[in-house]
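Section 5: illustrative case.
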């Protein structure tokens, strides 16, 4: 079985959120591998190990896991550079209980600022379905949201 890094990250977050266990990557290999094996009805024991993890690695794994689960995502859209434009898009997000983590408002994306100011919003959502609802609401309100790579 070949495992991708992302599978370890998802297993890490599963163990942390669902079982309240801190398991390092080497201890997660068996957990991640079990998702590829047909073990329904069988008695399986997975050896878990580790709390031997530095805080930077821990924080990075949690961050990547939240992004992989659509709990954190970044969207880019163009706004007119007019008073109230930022408030209007914020209201759309707030009405759906999206939580803004970071905003990047770039006025230098176009020569004609009143025509195009780029806004990148990093948001916290409840998961994939909630993320989809936020994206659809932005589209329905006249924005053209594009998912971009999240860098937090």
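Designed sequence:
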């Amino acid at each position: 079985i070949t495992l991708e890094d992302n599978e370890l990250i998802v297993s890490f977050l599963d163990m942390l959120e669902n079982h309240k266990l801190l398991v390092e990557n080497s201890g997660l290999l068996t957990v991640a591998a079990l998702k590829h094996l047909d073990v329904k009805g069988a008695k399986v024991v997975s050896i878990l190990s580790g709390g031997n993890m530095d805080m930077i690695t821990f924080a990075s794994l949690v961050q990547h896991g939240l992004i992989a689960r659509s709990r954190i995502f970044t969207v880019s859209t163009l706004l007119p550079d007019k008073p109230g434009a930022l408030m209007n898009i914020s209201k759309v997000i707030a009405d759906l209980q999206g939580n803004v983590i970071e905003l990047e408002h770039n006025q230098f994306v176009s020569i004609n600022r009143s025509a195009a100011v780029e806004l990148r919003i990093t948001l916290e959502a409840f998961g994939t379905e909630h993320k989809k609802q936020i994206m659809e609401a932005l589209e329905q309100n006249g924005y053209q949201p594009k998912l971009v790579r999240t860098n937090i």
